[in-house]
Automatic annotation (TrEMBL):
Residues 137-140 are annotated as: G4. This is GTPase Era. It is a peripheral membrane protein. An essential GTPase that binds both GDP and GTP, with rapid nucleotide exchange. Plays a role in 16S rRNA processing and 30S ribosomal subunit biogenesis and possibly also in cell cycle regulation and energy metabolism. The gene is era. Monomer. GTP binds at residues 27-34, 74-78, 137-140.
Length: 319
C-alpha cells in the first residue's frame, strides 16, 4: 500500500494502547536518512552532509507523542568493506537491524534503483521478522510521474526478493511533506509498551560524541574528496571553566582531529591556519547551540598513521 493521505491528528487523545520501540533507517549513502531523522525529531540531532558516509556513530533521535515513543537509530551506510573500519561499520549496521522493531528503507526519489539498493534490499529480505517500510525520500526533487514510477519500482523490488513492504511512503524531509504521516505509520508497527526515555530527551547519544561529530562535519566541508574517510575527531575533555561567575559559565572543550598522513595536515589546517580556524569557529557555534552554553574550543590536528587499518588505533578513536 502506498500511503499518501494524512491520518488522524496524533495529538488527539485516543483509546489505543501506548507503544514504544526502535526504528532504524537504512539505505545507501546520501539517501537522506539523517535529514529524515532530524525532520522527525524536529531538531538537529543526526549529522547531515552532502558527502556520503558521514554518519559514523549510531545516533538516536527520540520522537515523543502522547500515544507513543519512537526511538530512531541512525546507522552508517552499509557498503563494500575495503578496510577494517568498513567491516566494523557493516557489523554495526547488521547488529542494529536485527535489534529494531521496524526498519525504514530509504530510497531517493530522484535516482533509479541501483545495485547498491538491491544489495541492501537483499540483506533486508534475510531479516524475516522485522517489518520493513520503504521510504521514498526527496520527493521535492521529482515530478509526480517520476515519483509514481519510483513507487512502482520499489514495490516490484520487494516482490522480486519475496517479501511485502509493510508500507511504501513518499516523503520530503526538506519540504516537510508526509513526515508526520511517516511517524503515524511507524507507530502501529511498534510493540505496546511504556515510555522508554524521559519527556524532552531528544537523544541519549553521549554529548562528547555529538560534539565530535559536529567538529568532524565542519572539518569535512569543502575538502578534497579523498580526505573525508581519513578524518576522525575525539573529544578528550569537556570541563566547566573554574572561577567563572554562575551567570557567565564557560565550557572548555579539548578535541583532537586525527588524520592519517602528515601530507593531509596542510589541507586541514590551511594557509596560515585559516581553515582550521574556520572549522573551530563554525563548530563552536553549533556546539554552543547544542549545549546551550558558551564554549572555548581547543582543537589540535594530529597524525595517527593509517588509523583505519590499525585495530588499536580504531579502539582509541571509539570504533
Ligand atoms: N531536496 C532534498 N534534499 C534532501 C532531502 N533529504 C536529504 N536531502 C539531501 O541529501 C543529502 C544527503 O542527506 P543525508 O540525510 O545526509 O543522507 P544520509 O542517508 O544520512 O547519508 P549518509 O550519512 O552518508 O549515510 C544532503 O545534501 C541533504 O540535504 C529532501 O527531502 N529533499
Amino acid at each position: 500500500m502506498v500511503a499518501m493521505s494524512v491520518h488522524s491528528d496524533p495529538t488527539e487523545p485516543s483509546d489505543s494502547p501506548h507503544r514504544s520501540g526502535f526504528a532504524c533507517f537504512v539505505g545507501r549513502p546520501n539517501a537522506g536518512k539523517s535529514t529524515l531523522t532530524n525532520a522527525l525529531v524536529g531538531q538537529k540531532i543526526a549529522i547531515t552532509s552532502n558527502r556520503p558516509q558521514t554518519t559514523r556513530h549510531t545516533v538516536r533521535g527520540i520522537v515523543h507523542r502522547p500515544d507513543a515513543q519512537l526511538v530512531l537509530v541512525d546507522t552508517p551506510g552499509l557498503h563494500k568493506p575495503r578496510t577494517l573500519l568498513g567491516e566494523r561499520l557493516n557489523d554495526v549496521v547488521r547488529t542494529t537491524w536485527a535489534e529494531v522493531d521496524v526498519i525504514g528503507f530509504c530510497l531517493p526519489a530522484d535516482q533509479k534503483l541501483g545495485p547498491g539498493d538491491r544489495f541492501i534490499a537483499k540483506e533486508l529480505a534475510g531479516i524475516k521478522r522485522t517489518p520493513k517500510v520503504a521510504v521514498v525520500t526527496k520527493t521535492d526533487l521529482v515530478d509526480p510521474k517520476a515519483l509514481a514510477e519510483q513507487l512502482i519500482a520499489v514495490d516490484q523490488l520487494g516482490k522480486e526478493l519475496g517479501f511485502e513492504w509493510a508500507e511504501i511512503i513518499p516523503v520530503s524531509a526538506v519540504g516537510g511533506q508526509q513526515v508526520s504521516l511517516l511517524a503515524d505509520l511507524l507507530v502501529p508497527l511498534l510493540p505496546e509498551g511504556p515510555t522508554l526515555y524521559p519527556e524532552g530527551d531528544l537523544t541519549d547519544e553521549p554529548e562528547q560524541v555529538m560534539v565530535a561529530e559536529l567538529i568532524r562535519e565542519a572539518a569535512l566541508e569543502g575538502v578534497r574528496d579523498e580526505l573525508p574517510h581519513s578524518i576522525a575527531v575525539v573529544v578528550e575533555e569537556m570541563l566547566p571553566r573554574e572561577d567563572r561567575p554562575a551567570d557567565k559559565p564557560l565550557l572548555d572543550i579539548h578535541a583532537n582531529l586525527f588524520i592519517e598522513r602528515p601530507s593531509q595536515k596542510g589541507i586541514v589546517i590551511g594557509p596560515k591556519g585559516k581553515r582550521l580556524k574556520d572549522v573551530g569557529v563554525k563548530s563552536r557555534k553549533q556546539i554552543e547551540a547544542l549545549l546551550g552554553t558558551p564554549v572555548f574550543l581547543d582543537l589540535h590536528v594530529k597524525v595517527a598513521k593509517d588509523w583505519q587499518r590499525d585495530p588499536k588505533q580504531l579502539r582509541r578513536l571509539g570504533f
